[in-house]
Amino acid sequence: MHRSTSRAALLSSALAALLSCCPVIASAAEQAARPVPAAGGKAIERGRYLVRIAGCNDCHTPAYAERGGAVPEKEWLTGSPVGFRGPWGTTYAANLRLTMAALSEDDWVRAAHGKQYRPPMPWFALRDMQAADLRAIYRFIRHLGPAGEPAPAFVGPGGTPGGPVVQFPG
Ligand code: HEC
């Protein structure tokens, strides 16, 4: 019993060492520990500007549109509890502060250029963005740091969302 326990301990520390050495298979928590880009860089400034003008806050920051954008930056992109309900089911604008903390910069660029999210997420805007702009957005959001809770989970077309929703026709 004692022997197998210590073998298990050995195995798990070997696994931990392996995980910390290899970014490809690093866990979300380890990825969250990636160094945050230094504040004040040009990319961070550009990322702030792009987030502002591309409208990411309109959905991903609680009450941003309703308050005419008068929401402190520390609350930006923490996700919204208001659902978007339509023929696709009910979607929630994700907490991007947590999304980015779990992704490497390269993973983010790949996802942004390749993934189709459900409505009303304008995934086609991410698809059409230049990689340098996506990298700037990533750096800005990582600079803000992880914060808040995950947004509610997607509810399928047959389900009934628990909280408030914006209802789309169809
Ligand atoms: C009109 C509302 C709206 C706008 C504007 C918007 N999003 Fe979204 N976003 C959503 C919704 C809703 C989802 C969830 C989609 C789903 O469930 O498939 C989402 C999902 C995402 C995801 C996936 C997150 C994850 O953890 O899976 C990313 C990344 C994202 N948005 C980034 C952005 C960025 C960057 C911008 C600005 C360029 C932006 N969004 C603008 C509504 C919006």
UniProtKB/TrEMBL annotation:
InterPro entries on file: Cyt_c-like_dom_sf
Signal sequence, renumbered to the chain: 1-28
Keywords of the record: Signal
UniProt protein name: Cytochrome C
Organism expressing this protein natively: Noviherbaspirillum suwonense
